[in-house]
Amino acid sequence: MNYKGVEYILTPVAPGVWKWQFQIGDKVISGKTEARLNLLAIRRVQLRIDRELKKAARDE
């Protein structure tokens, strides 16, 4: 999937648990989130991408 030019992966691990991963520049960020609905998991990953993009822009 793609959000704001950042390609990310979201895969179910167990019922209600999702594993995600994305890359900004050379930095790979990954983690897990708990959400019953896949749309909620997607939104949480998108919020994390927003946070990391803002952090990357500040560090430049």
Description:
- The protein is α+β, with helices and mostly antiparallel strands and 60 residues long.
- It has one helix and four strands, in the order ββββα.
- It has one helix at 38-59; strands at 2-3, 6-14, 17-24, 27-34.
- A four-stranded antiparallel β-sheet has the order 1-2-3-4.
- A hairpin with a 2-residue loop joins strand 1 and strand 2 (6-14).
- The longest helix has 22 residues, at 38-59.
- The mean pLDDT is 95.
Secondary-structure content class:
alpha+beta
What is the molecular shape? elongated
Largest beta-sheet characterization: 4 strands, antiparallel
- Spans of at least 5 consecutive residues with low confidence: none
Task: Count all strands and give the number.
Answer: 4
Give the amount of beta strand, in percent: over 45%
Radius of gyration: 12 Å
Distance between the termini: 26 Å
Helix content: 25-40%
| Average pLDDT figure | 95
State the domain count: 1
Tell me the strand order in the biggest sheet: 1-2-3-4
Alpha plus pi helix count: 1
SSE ordering: EEEEH
Topology, pairings included?
Blueprint (H helix, E strand, L loop, with lengths): L1 E2 L2 E9 L2 E8 L2 E8 L3 H22 L1
Antiparallel strand pairs: 1-2, 2-3, 3-4
